[in-house]
Here is the input.
Amino acid sequence: MAISSRNPSPIEELRRLYASTTTGDYRLPQWVNNEFLRYYVLIHDEDHDDAAKSMSLYEQMKRHFGLHCHLLRLRSSQCVSSDDDSVKLPLCQWISAAEELTEIQRRESHNDDEDPTPCVFESDATALKSFVREMVTQSIIPTMERLSATWNDQVASRRRGISGRFISLSKRWTPFSTSTRSATGPPSNGSGSNYDALQGFYRPDTPEATMRKLADYAFMLRDFKLAQSTYELLRTDFSNDKAWKNYAGANEMAAISTLLASQSLSTKARLDTVDQMLETACYSYITRCAAPYSALRTLALGLELLKLRGASAADDAARWASRILELRLVGPIGHALVTERISACFVSRGGVGSLHWGARRRKAALWAVLGADGWLRLEKDVQARKCVDEACRLYGLNAAEGTPLAFKGMRAFVDELREAVRALRMPGQGVGSEQEDREAQREDRADDEETLVEVSETLTFDQPSPVSHRESLMGAVQPAFEPLGDLSLSPSRLVQQRDDGFG
Here is the structure.
């Protein structure tokens, strides 16, 4: 909560803001505990305000509200790029796609040659950095560590003991149902359940909500073992209460914590723990919660963490990426991106020995080709060219152009992709370019046949130039994108084509 030093009654204003966040219009939803950390900031104007008065007010704030206060000294005058102590305002990295697109359109529509990025004074930038560093290191992190230790001793340790296990069993196998409860009481899925099924959340003072905050705090503080063990306890509680969205989230975070906490994870442990939790989270998000975006997030995070482990975990990462395509969780652009990531997963699988036994180079090349095909369908030539180059590198086509591939027709398909990328990168093709296309085809054919041609180094002006017949491409009409004619980039068949021998 921030106020200006020009406020006539700053202490009363801060108290009013505190009341509005507790019981007023700015109160958080019911599933959030009101006892969260509040940080008070006093903004001082270096150009117009009195520094002594602001310091006196800052001391009053610390006496009334504690040590979670800060005096931020900024300048109110306008900063331009021509100032000596000006720095460009950095762009926020955590913005949505719509905000980033709006920013790009604003920059492109700017008519001036100057950079439209706003500038701030270097002293203001230093003050803001110091403010963020002090708030994080002296208030946020110590508060999280203190609350985590308290919750772990008072709540989680009891749940891990014998008494906590008996309580869990009594909640699971109790013969009573919600019909025995009072009609005016909050609905739940079983006797003794703290889950409010009507509103779909746990109240913030329940043990389940407290343990979920403990697990999240431990995860943010990078205590992944504590987070993983707490998420494991919550999985059982959420399953018994039939809180499916909480259950899916606990499985997702338990899988991520396991992948981040374990230095070495065997194949059997991955199959028994990580794969099971990812599968359960994905199923619950899609079937029970109708949240495909959450399922996509779960699988994307899981495959990237598995890919970092290499070896056999890279195969599991590619399998989960293929699951994204099977479930149709992404659109056309996402399909091409995931296909490209599958190729990267197989590339990360290193072989054994000098012969690289167990490598997945051919699979990686195949998925790179499929990724190039997907980008070409979207007319994204830059991404398609990267995929084609990666496929050629994996197939070994860059060093020797005449190298045959293992499958019949694969070399022709890769060549078709190359030609399609080349045609897409030449949007000015039009009248007068047929001769240039024929020359390019002759050059490619000469390279394939490895024809050696000796060129004289003597410059003669009697012979006509080999490029004198070329016409200018300036002003040519852009045709429709049909670089391959009737040839399709995918091995699809027409309905009319039959092979039954009856025509």
Remarks:
- The two ends are 79 Å apart (CA to CA).
- The longest helix spans residues 122-160.
